């Protein structure tokens, strides 16, 4: 770490000195640094593949981090310039925008706070059952890694910039709640943030505050957000960053957003979950509305250098959080599912993305590592079946309205559709066996696409139908929330958490987080 910091600081000091004579260096330095980093990585990969072949190990991770960390010094002058612009320009502009719609902003924040309180109360019921100290027990989630050490055990190769942010957030949350509930408070807070951001998005898309609140309410009531906002997990944080990317596209003109905003939001989204890089690229292209490759290369270069600089800063806060391990990405290939027939995979994706992650179902008991657990299922009671049909018919009607009103040509609709298709295509290969685990990554898109069909709708029948859907979803998914702790309690009383044949299954490593 000392060599990495010395190399990065040396490059940064040289650039800070020379930029005083040539201001254009601030814009050109990241491009040069990204080109140098890519060239060094390509040369090292060729050397490892042709001249010194062998298994990928920790030494390769050290080299990759050193190259990116050293080259991140090229981004320091730009980071200082952008930091100054954020303080002097963006914060006052945001304050003016909030003052201009202070009533609507207050309502959106209040709804987010209410949902955050609901998530926290529901999560406490689950936490008292001991599920936060185990892996794979609750819908294949891994709250143990986010609960232990306040996130210092998070898989940094899949979540590069999350450990430091999670640790700092838990440190702040521990001042308001007990230390054992701090990770849950962070997760519930991000769940409430998702609701607030969704309200802003749906209001912008539909032009109606009522429909904006209804869309945010539906998102907060989905099984995906009820499940993963009520436990210490990273997927709800990823959902908040993905919604932020969609807001970036929706407000590209009204807020006069600049290139730095697209880069910073994309870096944060990718830092929370590395697969979000595809969504960040899609949203940037829709925001920029251009097909020129030069703009994409510039965005990618700036994102690479800014992300590397943040990763180097994180290593100073949490030295044990060392991401970008090539061996970890090679190991993730074991979660690729290519043997399942294409038709079966498509049917599973449709069920998981359009129904299972929205409408509450009856959890399926399972046994994992010798202990009882709950898995996602597709069994519904009568109220659940009625809610599924109501949701399916209303979604088809909204899709027809999208086609009729030709709102499918807008940049916001294209961005949401492409992000949904990218997520579906990726998870048709990776993690297909537990799709509900990744449901937060595409649930917002499932609600955002039909919302474009309601743009400009202020009729009473539409409001009544949306109200009926909200009531049915809330009642049905509240029953889902009651079933989960009840079934966990029954399984605990029937078998106990650990069977005699397993000594400590909680220490088993599940890398697919």
Strand order of the largest sheet: 1-2
Number of helices: 20
Instruction: Report strand %.
Output: under 5%
Q: Give the % helix.
A: 55-70%
The tally of beta strands, per DSSP, is 2
List low-pLDDT spans. 497-513
Mean pLDDT: 84
Name the helix and strand elements from N-terminus to C-terminus, one letter apiece. HHHHHHHHHHHHHHHHEEHHHH
Question: What value does the Rg take, in angstroms?
Answer: 23 Å
Q: Tell the overall outline.
A: globular
Sketch the major β-sheet.
2 strands, antiparallel
Write up what this structure looks like.
With 513 residues, the chain is mostly helical. The protein has 20 helices and 2 strands. It has helices spanning 2-18, 25-51, 58-71, 76-100, 102-127, 143-147, 162-173, 182-206, 209-221, 223-228, 235-250, 259-272, 277-288, 293-317, 326-331, 342-356, 382-405, 411-427, 443-451, 460-495, and strands spanning 362-368, 371-379. Helix 3 (58-71) crosses helix 14 (293-317), helix 8 (182-206) runs antiparallel to helix 9 and helix 11 (235-250) packs parallel to helix 13. The longest helix is centred in the C-terminal third of the chain and has 36 residues, at 460-495. It is globular and about 65 Å long. The two termini are 27 Å apart. Mean pLDDT is 84; it is low at 497-513.
């Amino acid at each position: 770490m000392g060599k990495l910091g010395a190399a990065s600081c040396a490059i940064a000091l040289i650039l800070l000195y020379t930029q005083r004579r040539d201001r254009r260096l601030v814009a050109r330095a990241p491009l040069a640094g990204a080109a140098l980093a890519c060239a060094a990585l390509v040369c090292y990969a060729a050397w490892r593949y042709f001249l010194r072949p062998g298994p990928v190990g920790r030494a390769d991770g050290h080299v990759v981090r050193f190259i990116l960390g050293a080259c991140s010094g090229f981004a320091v002058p730009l980071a200082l310039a952008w930091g100054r612009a954020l303080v002097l320009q963006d914060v006052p502009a945001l304050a003016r925008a909030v003052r201009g719609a202070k009533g609507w902003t207050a309502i959106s924040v209040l709804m987010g706070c209410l949902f955050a309180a609901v998530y926290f109360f529901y999560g406490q019921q689950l936490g008292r059952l001991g599920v936060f100290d185990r892996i794979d027990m609750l819908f294949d989630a891994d709250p143990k890694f986010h609960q232990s050490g306040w996130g210092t055990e998070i898989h940094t190769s899949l979540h590069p910039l999350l450990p430091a942010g999670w640790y700092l957030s838990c440190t702040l949350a521990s001042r308001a709640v007990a230390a054992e509930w701090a990770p849950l408070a962070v997760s519930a807070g991000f769940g409430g943030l998702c609701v607030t951001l969704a309200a802003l998005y749906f209001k912008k898309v539909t032009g109606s505050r009522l429909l904006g609140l209804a869309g945010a309410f539906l998102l907060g009531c989905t099984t995906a957000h009820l499940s993963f906002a009520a436990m210490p997990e990273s997927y709800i944080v990823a959902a908040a960053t993905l919604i932020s990317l969609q807001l970036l596209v929706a407000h590209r003109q009204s807020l006069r957003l600049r290139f730095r905003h697209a880069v910073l939001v994309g870096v944060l989204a990718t830092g929370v979950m590395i697969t979000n890089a595809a969504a960040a690229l899609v949203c940037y292209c829709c925001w920029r509305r251009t097909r020129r490759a030069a703009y994409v290369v510039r965005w990618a270069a700036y994102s690479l250098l800014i992300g590397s600089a943040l990763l180097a800063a994180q290593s100073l806060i949490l030295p044990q959080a060392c991401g970008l391990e090539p061996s970890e990405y090679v190991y993730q290939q074991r979660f690729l599912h290519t043997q399942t027939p294409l038709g079966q995979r498509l049917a599973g994706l449709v069920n998981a993305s359009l129904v299972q992650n929205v409408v509450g179902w009856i959890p399926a008991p399972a046994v994992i590592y010798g202990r009882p657990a709950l898995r996602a299922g597709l069994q519904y009671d009568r109220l659940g079946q009625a809610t599924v049909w109501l949701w399916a018919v209303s979604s088809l009607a909204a899709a027809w309205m999208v086609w009729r009103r030709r709102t499918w040509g807008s940049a916001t609709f294209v961005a949401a559709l492409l992000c949904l298709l990218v997520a579906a295509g990726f998870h048709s290969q990776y993690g297909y066996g537990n799709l509900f685990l990744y449901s937060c990554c595409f649930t917002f898109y499932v609600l955002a696409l039909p919302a474009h069909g309601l743009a400009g709708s202020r009729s009473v029948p539409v409001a009544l139908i949306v109200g009926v859907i909200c009531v049915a979803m809330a009642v049905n998914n509240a029953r889902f929330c009651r079933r989960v702790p009840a079934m966990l309690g029954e399984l605990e009383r029937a078998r106990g958490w650990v069977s005699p044949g397993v000594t400590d299954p909680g220490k088993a490593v599940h890398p697919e987080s």
